[in-house]
Design a protein that fits this description.
- The structure is a single chain.
- The chain is an alpha+beta fold and 221 residues long.
- It has one domain (28-188): 3-Layer(aba) Sandwich (NADH Oxidase), CATH 3.40.109.
- It is 37% helix and 12% strand.
- It has a four-stranded antiparallel beta sheet with strand order 1-2-4-3, sandwiched between helices.
- The protein is globular, with a radius of gyration of 20 Å.
- The structure holds flavin mononucleotide.
- Residues 27-28, 30, 102-103, 158-161, 195, 197 line the site of flavin mononucleotide.
């Protein structure tokens, strides 16, 4: 007999496996088809973001849907500039990096910029010693979007290759605000089986055991 106690708050086995599946099958996507995303699905994705936890219930997320084609091209240009700067700093890995697809800005059906708002200094609860908890909260929101998008069969890619000052200016954002992510959202030809950086032999994912410590940080890793 199982010694596991019945927990009335737990989800059903089917629901639990669906949650595990969406977590493990979520991928950062950079290949998209041009099919439009249903408005209801897009709304579900934004609602998922809005249900995220946030430090002191600060809700420090702002989402700018980019519907102007010319603006999309300008954002693509900013990302391309940063891709080249990044490549310059990668030394002998430069040419391998330049072969990677690091965004799908021009192809994806929906382009969204996720940003932190201005006035964040007023929020002290949970941020006095760790001001970056605003970014942590926005990141939780973005992860929720990623998971709900995957459950809807929609791909999402997080692009952080851009100069935030230039993007702030381009999007006429107020002083003190900060763009954090360019999100490519849309239908995909297929979901990658593994992180694309693993498939492309750029990086290897390490197992959980290497990241679980007890009591103190280990002296030898
Ligand atoms: C904060 C953050 C920023 C990222 N920025 C980029 C990016 O600029 N370009 C890109 O191709 N992928 C970007 N990624 C995606 C990661 O490369 C990807 O999450 C990682 O390789 C693991 O793959 P997976 O998300 O499919 O599991 C970013 C991911 C995170 C969490």
């Amino acid at each position: 007999m199982s010694d596991q106690k019945i927990n009335a708050f737990a989800y059903s086995d089917a629901d639990k496996s669906a949650i595990q599946r969406v977590i493990s099958q979520r991928r950062d996507m950079r290949h998209f088809t041009s099919d439009p995303v249903d408005k209801k699905i897009l709304n579900n994705i934004f609602m998922a973001a809005h249900h995220a936890p946030s430090v002191g219930l600060m809700q420090p997320w702002r989402f700018m849907r980019i519907t102007d084609g010319a603006l999309r091209q300008q954002i693509a240009q900013l990302v391309e500039e940063e891709r080249q700067h990044t490549a310059q700093q990668l030394g002998e890995r430069k040419s391998q990096f330049l072969k990677l697809k690091v965004e799908g800005i021009k192809e994806c059906a929906e382009l969204v910029v996720a940003a932190l708002p201005d006035g964040r200094e007023q929020h002290v609860f949970g941020r006095r010693t760790l001001p970056e908890m605003d970014l942590a909260s926005l990141s939780c929101a973005i992860q929720n979007m990623w998971l709900v998008a995957r459950s809807e069969g929609i791909g999402m890619g997080w692009v952080s290759l851009f100069d935030p000052d230039k993007l702030t200016e381009l999007l006429r954002m107020p002083e003190g605000s900060k763009p954090i992510a360019v999100l490519c959202i849309g239908h995909v030809p297929e979901f990658y089986q593994q992180p694309m950086l693993v498939q492309e032999n750029w990086a290897e994912a390490r197992p959980l055991e290497e990241f679980l410590y007890e009591n103190h940080w280990p002296e030898e890793l």
